[in-house]
Amino acid sequence: MVVQPIKKRLSCCDFTRLKNPKAGKGQAYIPTDYEHIANIVTHGFKTLKYIFHIGDRAVIYLFIASSYTPWLTLREFNGIGDEVLSIVWTMAVVGILYQYIFHEKYKILELLLYLIIGVCPAIVVCLQRQAAGMFELALGGATYILGVVFFKMDGRMPFAHAIWHCFVAGGALWHYYAICTHLLGHDQDELAMHL
């Protein structure tokens, strides 16, 4: 049996065509075509991470606006429900645009947007004549607002951002429960009584 030299056996795994030549002093790095493709792919994933981070913040506005929408559309507010609903969704759009245009630039504005969209509709909803569901709605709003404390603790407390996510999900769950038991369930019971 003839043994080939090690150099010959490794030639099938020659990676020199995949590597760029070493940049000379004062010269720019010039990637090979393969490296260029790899750079595009990895930079794409960095870009995706940034987009997902912004989307993560933007979706919170949708959570909050969506959790107030059933109350503002299914209950009577002496004719101001539609106006408040327009304000809530306008604020949600402003919050989302803020995230995509000024992400992380004006921290106090971001905080104010979260608080305004979370608190203002709650004040109007609490003025309705029917009290059913108000406790759960208030708990959801309080949960959203308490979560802001952890949102502002990013970088100062371990897992602060993850805890904030839990508060946002908790607030949405309280509002979902209130909607199912006091808005949707109530209407179904009334409908069954009339049949």
UniProtKB/TrEMBL annotation:
Q: Provide the transmembrane region boundaries.
A: 54-72, 84-101, 108-125, 131-151, 163-185
User: What are the record keywords, sorted?
Assistant: Membrane, Transmembrane, Transmembrane helix
User: Superkingdom, according to UniProt?
Assistant: Eukaryota
Q: Which InterPro entries is this protein grouped with?
A: AdipoR/HlyIII-related
The answer, when asked if GTP-binding is one of the entry's keywords, is no
Q: Where in the cell is it found?
A: Membrane
Q: How does it sit in the membrane?
A: Multi-pass membrane protein
Keyword Acyltransferase listed: no
What is the protein's name according to its record? Answer: MMD
Organism in which the protein naturally occurs? Mytilus coruscus
Family stated for the protein in its record: Belongs to the ADIPOR family.
**One GO CC annotation, please?**
membrane
